[in-house]
Amino acid sequence: MRRLAAELARLGTAESTRSLEGKLHRGTFRLGFFLQVIDALQADRPLHWCESMRCTGDWDARAARLLLSEIEARPWLSWAEVSRRLAYIDENWDSHELAVAVSSGDFAATLFFQCAVVCSFQGVDIFVDQSDLYEAARKGAADVRRRAQGGAESDVT
After folding, report:
1. What's the helix, strand, coil split of the chain in %, to 5?
2. Which pTM does this prediction carry?
């Protein structure tokens, strides 16, 4: 963790070891931060991410460019369709609010990975095991079906 804090500081982002541990433990970080970590550690990344990672602007702008490019690469996806697919795993986004959040870079890394599952993005398995992504999506979908049928609330902890 100290190495990561030092590398982020070298890139101009001051993060203490403790704050990094907290973000990573809670899983509460933005996609821009995730991309910064990848860059700081010089970690492998999908080749098609390289253009977004090199674009000008802050890391949230790069995150926005990455998610936008993934969606634009699939011409059958509209914001309404992405929103509909996310709702299937109990992530309810108004399509306009989703488009605004993504365009601004104002979104968590979890949204990117949820979109990766429901929209079939390639390459995320470098960072997260594909079976874990699908299992999380299946649990979300099962919870939605249970609630729709008047069943018990989610048992996910």
Report:
1. 65, 0, 30
2. 0.79
